[in-house]
């Protein structure tokens, strides 16, 4: 038995692969294009482990995906592969359209063809699980109820629009072709191996490097934070027991304003790795121009996955964020490796004029 995971060298995908193989001997075929966000260092613990088969390639490569499906006959495909950073989608949407929409379409086509050839029992057991985001629902007013699975799609960035399109394709392949799909829409993740372009690892990295901690606009935008290990557990649970054709919202009931998140990070760093001058890392906070079209608030109603599948997050924001800061302090070499070269070009292009 095996499963095929796409994007398994990225942040959430690599956490998923590591967690999966820590719990099971079922082989993972890991298809990843190794864009700037994909990093085999995340999976170094699996070097020489026959249960992990890594293949460098594009989800949009129909011939490659078809060959992998024919060769390994996985019982499930879990699609993590995507361009995932909102700011990059604003600077250049093209890659988002190519991977998130065209890539998902070609992946679905390859899976559909392979699924059509399966025997009855294998067909009954097969699942295509699409990993998506709460950003497809758009932005919430301050006192509006959290996003449920029936909230209308109202994506506001090129990233969220491309993810919304991929969700619709997945849905259509179920309704039209009977492909046994599952979709998860999760809130903001944080934890080990997250590329330091996203708020939490960026702030930890900049703080330790003595650089400004950039806060967009007034810093009062709200995100609903979930520790990545809890997201991986939710995906395993949906794969195991989710109802075919359904979508499941995943979130930690942990809404925080960005400025509060950054204050929390500064307080933990002040304690675990104080600045040599005795000042707080808060001194480095810098308010910068807002993100164009910045969504004000996200919040997930995770009632469905809790009720139907008994999933609950194991970490609170307080326990998860402390573990995460400690992880980054313990993995300075990984951070050093991923923040060289191309990373510096991105930071220069995106924040350049403002620092
Ligand atoms: P990431 O950017 O860290 O990793 C994406 C991975 O996909 C990388 O390893 C990259 O090399 C790979 N990839 C990109 N294009 C590819 C292609 N064409 N073919 C094959 N591989 C390709 O992203 P992440 O934060 O780990 O997110 C994973 C998934 O979860 C995405 O679909 C994202 O939309 C979704 N998601 C992310 C969050 C979050 O907070 N990070 C929350 C909810 C949902
Ligand atoms: O909600 C789920 C989504 O969460 C995922 O689908 C995306 O893949 C993931 O990147 C994340 O999107 P966000 O845009 O919410 O995450 P990001 O870490 O980029 O930003 C979090 C908040 O912090 C957001 O309101 C913007 C703000 N921010 C971000 C950066 C990088 C800043 O204020 N300053 C910054 O420098």
What does this entry look like structurally?
- With 355 residues, this protein is of the alpha/beta class.
- It has a domain at 2-190 and 227-253 and 293-315: 3-Layer(aba) Sandwich (Rossmann fold).
- 44% of the residues lie in helices and 16% in strands.
- The protein is built from 13 helices and twelve strands.
- It has helices spanning 11-23, 62-72, 86-91, 94-116, 120-125, 158-177, 199-208, 228-241, 258-272, 303-309, 317-330, 332-338, 342-351, and strands at residues 2-6, 27-32, 52-56, 76-79, 127-133, 181-186, 188-190, 213-216, 222-227, 247-250, 255-257, 285-288.
- A seven-stranded parallel β-sheet has the order 3-2-1-4-5-6-10, with helices on both faces. Strands 7-9-11 form a three-stranded mixed β-sheet.
- Helix 7 packs across helix 9 (258-272).
- It starts with a strand and ends with a helix.
- The model has no long low-confidence stretch (mean pLDDT 97).
- The site of nicotinamide-adenine-dinucleotide has 30 residues, from helix 1, helix 4, strand 5 and strand 7.
């Amino acid at each position: 038995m095996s499963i095929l995971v796409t994007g398994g060298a990225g942040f959430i995908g690599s956490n998923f692969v590591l967690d999966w193989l820590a719990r099971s001997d079922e082989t993972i075929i890991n298809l990843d294009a190794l864009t700037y966000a994909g990093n085999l260092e995340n999976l170094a613990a699996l070097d020489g482990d026959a249960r992990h088969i890594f293949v460098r390639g594009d989800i949009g490569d129909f011939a490659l995906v078809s060959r992998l499906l024919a060769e390994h006959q996985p019982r499930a495909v879990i699609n993590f592969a995507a361009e995932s950073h909102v700011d990059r989608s604003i600077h250049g949407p093209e890659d988002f359209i190519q991977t998130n929409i065209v890539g998902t379409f070609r992946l679905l086509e390859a899976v559909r063809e392979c699924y059509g050839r399966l025997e009855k029992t294998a067909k009954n057991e097969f699942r295509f699980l699409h990993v998506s985001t709460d950003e497809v629902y758009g932005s919430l007013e301050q006192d509006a109820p959290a996003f449920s699975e029936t909230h209308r799609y109202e994506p506001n960035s090129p990233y969220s629009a491309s993810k919304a399109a991929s969700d619709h394709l997945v849905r259509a392949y179920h309704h039209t072709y009977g492909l046994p799909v599952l979709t998860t829409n999760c809130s903001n993740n944080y934890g080990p191996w997250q590329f330091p372009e996203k708020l939490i690892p960026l702030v930890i990295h900049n703080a330790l490097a003595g650089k400004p901690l950039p806060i967009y606009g007034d810093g009062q935008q709200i995100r609903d934070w979930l520790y990545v290990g809890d997201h991986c557990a939710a995906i395993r649970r949906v794969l195991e027991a989710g109802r075919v054709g359904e979508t499941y919202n995943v979130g930690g009931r942990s809404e925080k304003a960005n400025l509060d998140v950054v204050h929390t990070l500064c307080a933990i760093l002040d304690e675990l790795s104080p600045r040599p001058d005795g000042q707080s890392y808060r001194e480095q906070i810098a308010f910068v121009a807002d993100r164009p079209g910045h969504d004000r608030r996200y919040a997930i109603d995770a009632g469905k996955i809790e009720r139907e599948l008994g999933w609950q997050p194991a970490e609170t924001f307080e326990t998860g964020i402390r573990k995460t800061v400690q992880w980054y302090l313990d993995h300075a070499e990984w951070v050093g490796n991923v923040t060289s070269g191309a990373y510096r070009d991105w930071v220069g292009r995106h924040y350049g004029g403002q620092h």
